Amino acid sequence: MHPPPVRARAGTLYVLATPIGNLRDITLRALDILGSVDLVAAEDTRTTAGLLAAYGIEARLFAYHEHNERSATPVLLERLRSGASIALASDAGTPGISDPGTLLVAAARAEGIPVEPIPGPNAAVAALSACGLDAPHWLFYGFLPAKSSARRKVLETLRDLPHTLVFYEAPHRIGECVADLADILGGTRRACIARELTKRFETLHRCTLAEACPWLAADENHRRGEFVLLVGGAVPAAYDELAAARPVLAALLDELPASQAARLAARITGVRKNLLYQAALEQAGDKHDESPHDQT
To answer: Rounded to a whole number, what is the distance in angstroms from the first to the last CA of the chain?
Structure first.
């Protein structure tokens, strides 16, 4: 037997995920809630009205978006306090995930108002599931800064992370964003460009970051739609094993020449002596303070 329909409870805020493209991706529970709440707070009432019409649902709509969420949040809180049930819906996907919603959810929870998630579509998770990048951990960043200088600074902080990196990007910035990704993270990184997920022209293109810009430039259609960019994590380099040994090396360098400090640090930490010697020279700021024969 199919589970029975559910109805919205009084005074409850429902954080409701909606399709990111294909309208058939709505869940049965989401349809139940949309059909029984007192109010639907929608990022774009026209988009949500189209979804409701597709399923023959009549509901009262209230515009709730990034430009009015500070002024609209108290209004919705008052409705919840008075016992109204409200569904919070963004244009597509899950509210609060690179979309408006966190302000209202935080305010409702602060007042003890029940907040219930109605899970469903999410572009980042959809792209991850089909991209084939096999790292066990991933970091969702969302939208990078629009300006290249700020974007590059952020990417510098992410460059050495071993996790798959997940970004959202708009079509008018996709080319310059991918160029910065390749420049800062390195062209050999594995990547997947996912566009128009669940829509007619859905594309998931696997390549390296060096190959991504030529692929985007090769066809105007490759630059259309909403994008999820997935980039493989940094591969740990041999030099990374120095991280734990650096404090020991620094202390020894205060008293000893680079070759002796490296030799003792290797015995203490187990890190290879040649790596420690090169680090010692860099740390001392003089790569020529001893002859190459001193490394042995």
So the answer is: 77
